[in-house]
Amino acid sequence: MTKARDISDKNGRRLVQLFEDILATLPTGVAALEARRTRDDRGTIVRLRPANAESAEFSAHVEDGYALVDVSFGRGATFELPWDADLPNNATFDTTLETVLAMCRAVIAGRCEDRLGFLGIRSTICVDEKRVFRMTDFFHPNLHPRVVRYGPYYPIIEV
Q: Starting at the edge strand that comes first in sequence, how are the strands of the sheet with 132-138 ordered?
């Protein structure tokens, strides 16, 4: 696995570090982290893979020199940040990373689902009551439309 210190691009390094920090907050064995360079060596891809088969994988991708981050989970659509999170076009990379963190925490808590339709997938991440992110990705045909509600990475006790 590639570590944050091994990434030459500043934004790629920061994205990997964010995922390493997230993994450090989880109980041991709950998830595994994978970070690697893109095939063309122009970007960084980071994945958080849960041990629970009922949970959704969460991943993010950033190209070298850019502040745009693609986020996806489970089988679903790809969210392009800052636009698909309703952030301003001039949002800083720090603001984008805060949104990635919030989305990742929601996926870890199991607050996400994919609606697989005949022609596409409608993905939803519920960060909180005010922030619910939805994205539709067409041209993903499914013979058996259904809703996939993902579970939490581990039992989370709300206090």
A: 132-138, 120-126, 112-116, 146-149
